[in-house]
From TrEMBL:
InterPro entries: CHR_Transporter (IPR052518), Chromate_transpt (IPR003370). The keyword Transcription does not apply. It is a multi-pass membrane protein. This is Chromate transporter. The lineage of its organism: Bacteria, Bacillati, Bacillota, Clostridia, Lachnospirales. It comes from the Bacteria.
C-alpha cells in the first residue's frame, strides 16, 4: 500500500510541477508534510537543502529521498518513477503539439498566462523556506527564542554575495555552511 501511496503522491507532484523544482516545492510540501506526514517541516527544509546540493531536479531528488526514507530502495524507485512519468508523457506530447502549432496565438496566450502562476509558486516556496530557516518553530513569531539571528545573517550575506558580487551559488552555499560550522564550534568552546 505504501508503494502505491508513494507512486500516486509523486505522480501528482510530477504532473503539476509546472515551472521546475522551485515551483514544485509547495506541492511536495503538501503531499509529504501536510497530507501524509512522512516528514516534519524541519525534515522537509533539510530535504530541500539536500536536493539543492545534489545533482538533478529538486522534485526527482525529493522523490528519491522520501521514497528511501519511507520504504527503502524500492520506495525510492517507485516514488522517482511516479515523479518522472508525467514529464516523459507530457514532454513527448507537448513537443509534438508545439512543433505543429507553435505559431498559433492561442498557444502563445496559454504559455504567457502560465508564467505568472509559476512565479507565484516559486515565491511561495521561497517564503516558506525562509520562514522555516529564520523562525525556529516554523511560525512567524518575533520572540528571542524563536528567531535565528545567525540564519538572518547568513541570508543577508548570501543575498549580497549572489546579487552584488555575482558569486557562484555553489560557492556561496559552501561558504555559509563552513561559516555556520565554525560558529557552532566556536560557540561550543566558549
Amino acid at each position: 500500500m505504501i508503494y502505491l501511496q508513494l507512486f500516486l503522491s509523486f505522480l501528482q507532484i510530477g504532473a503539476f510541477s509546472f515551472g521546475g523544482g522551485y515551483a514544485a516545492m509547495p506541492l511536495i510540501q503538501s503531499q509529504v508534510v501536510d497530507l501524509h506526514g512522512w516528514l516534519t517541516m524541519q525534515e522537509f527544509t533539510d530535504l530541500i537543502t539536500i536536493s539543492q546540493m545534489t545533482p538533478g531536479p529538486i522534485a526527482v531528488n525529493s522523490a528519491t529521498f522520501v521514497g528511501i526514507q519511507i520504504a527503502g530502495p524500492l520506495g525510492a524507485l517507485v516514488a522517482t518513477l511516479g515523479c518522472i512519468l508525467p514529464s516523459c508523457i507530457f514532454v513527448t506530447a507537448l513537443a509534438y503539439i508545439y512543433m505543429k502549432y507553435r505559431k498559433m496565438s492561442l498557444l502563445q496566450g496559454i504559455l504567457g498566462s502560465l508564467r505568472p502562476a509559476v512565479v507565484s509558486l516559486i515565491a511561495i516556496a521561497g517564503v516558506t523556506i525562509l520562514i522555516s530557516a529564520v523562525f525556529t518553530n516554523g511560525t512567524v513569531e518575533f520572540r528571542t527564542d524563536n528567531v535565528s539571528i545567525r540564519a538572518i545573517i547568513w541570508f543577508i550575506i548570501a543575498v549580497i554575495l549572489l546579487r552584488k558580487k555575482k558569486m557562484d551559488p555553489i560557492l556561496v552555499m559552501v561558504l555559509c555552511g563552513v561559516f555556520e560550522t565554525v560558529c557552532t564550534l566556536v560557540m561550543k568552546w566558549i
